[in-house]
């Protein structure tokens, strides 16, 4: 469960930009949330704060009784490694690693490299890439790369999966595959997923839709 | 521990799949730096070595035995025959020879017109046959012949003092040659005419004129004495100081010096050589370090997005930094290996076969373990620093900035 209270983020600068203006909401374990809103409404900023990639200006985030904002930088990094999964819009893979090595990297950083090899292969076949284990990113299509990134995000059994416009650079067929994987993970593994998307059609697939405008929640509904 | 394994794996894959031409350029520059460092220090060591050899062979020998200084200063070593015999009985002593030191001024009238040119300097009385076993004067004759034990009115002249051989001297005789007659006025007033029997190549400038010991005895009016006894030893197997101690035990009243004690005047020259060697090596290391730094830095900047993503998925900063350190250490290692290969397996053997002929002997590359190990360590230190700094600069960046900024 994620509890967000009065979350604010203002980017410093000559003219400070208030990107989040005090958000409060609760995410239950196992929810699949679509985060929507116009460009510049603060979706990415929110995801960065929830994902411990950035420090909010004000507010509070509790993940399963842990005050995550109070953790030291090293502990935050470890928390990201063990409990959070990320899928970015693009360029997310290590170019010099094969698909399998990319997926294994977070496990390796935990010292679980050998035990996790089988799991990495299973995850790659879950995303339909069992035939592409030893391909390098530049030998894979955008959709395939994105699926490798999903497998990598899952290797250390995260509690929450964050995805920031994961289908923005993909064609319709690839986008569909990625969404199907998310739905399956949410349904079968009870994985909590927070996904930013532009596409109303994709947003509809989630159980809940939070819409932002100018750094505030303007809509939060179960669907 | 698994942090280092992960870092090593990232480094390994980055090198394996990274840009090949960058890799080749980097290795090329690093091996050149190492080669340069080893070559220069090898040449300078070789020069130093040649210098020592030359001084030992032509001038100082290994150990010099001098007359008593305390309690009262004596001019000669008396009963030099017995002293030589005793020293020769020490195991490891190869040969001994005695010398008389005189001083005088030599004058020469080249054009027989009453215009004399004068030089003053040391006149040394030697036992030519015995002398050959200790020093190499006999090998340095460039004109005429070496002395014989029974010669009395013949001398060996320094090419520098003779003049016209292109070796600088404070003053010379204006072109004295073999067969010419010169006059020597000794400091005790004795004056004699000699014929130049030979001229030796005086490249290092000892400016000494040689007569036979027999002749010196008649000038000085002494018998069975010596101003100095020179000793050649087997210093490859026993350190020079051991011989010095043994001889001192046998001849407690005499003053025993090694060639090292006589190097005083050349000390600043040798120090200068060492300083040059250190400076050149430091520049090489600096060039190597800057090269690695720039390439790793550019590489890391190009990969800042990827570094941001690695941090975002929970890879610790230390792992990322170590992966860059491993990469640059690997480059340094590769540079050292290739550089060593060229220096030690190609250049050094080649120069051993075709040494450089400098004025006073042949120059080889000489490497000593300290310079080699020092060179290798400095290459690795350069690699360590040049990998660490840029990686730290880039890896410390804020994740959001690294990925999107
Ligand atoms: N690193 C940043 N520095 C300054 N302003 C930023 C930065 N990132 C985003 N912003 C600003 O914050 C606001 C929200 O941006 P963002 O969260 O990226 O919106 P979205 O993802 O919904 O398009 C925008 O006005 C944007 O210009
Ligand atoms: Mg965005």
What does this molecule look like?
The complex is a heterodimer of chains A (223) and B (405). Chain A has 223 residues and is an alpha/beta fold. Chain A is 33% helix and 28% strand. Chain A has one domain (2-222): P-loop containing nucleotide triphosphate hydrolases (Rossmann fold, 3-Layer(aba) Sandwich), CATH 3.40.50.300. Chain A is built from 7 helices and 10 strands. In chain A, the strands form 2 sheets. Chain A has a 6-stranded mixed sheet with strand order 6-7-8-3-9-10. Chain A has a 4-stranded antiparallel sheet with strand order 2-1-4-5, with helices on one face. In chain A, helix 3 runs parallel beside helix 5, helix 4 crosses helix 5 and helix 5 (142-154) packs parallel to helix 6 (172-188). The longest helix of chain A has 17 residues, at 172-188. The radius of gyration of chain A is 17 Å and the shape is globular. Chain A starts with a strand and ends with a strand. Chain B is of the alpha+beta class and 405 residues long. In chain B, a hairpin with an 8-residue loop joins strand 2 and strand 3 (117-126). Chain B folds into 2 domains: 2-54 and 268-404, no CATH class; 68-253, no CATH class. Chain B has helices at 2-17, 20-60, 80-88, 128-134, 159-162, 213-220, 240-250, 259-262, 267-302, 304-312, 317-353, 369-395, 399-404, and strands at 63-66, 93-108, 117-126, 141-144, 154-158, 181-186, 191-200, 209-212, 228-233, 255-258, 356-358, 361-363. Chain B is built from 13 helices and 12 strands. In chain B, helix 1 packs across helix 11, helix 2 runs antiparallel to helix 9 (267-302) and helix 9 packs parallel to helix 12. Classes of the chains: A alpha/beta (223), B alpha+beta (405). Bound molecules: adenosine-5'-diphosphate and magnesium ion. Magnesium ion (MG) binds at residues 43-44 of chain A. Adenosine-5'-diphosphate binds at residues 11, 13, 17, 19, 37, 39-45 of chain A.
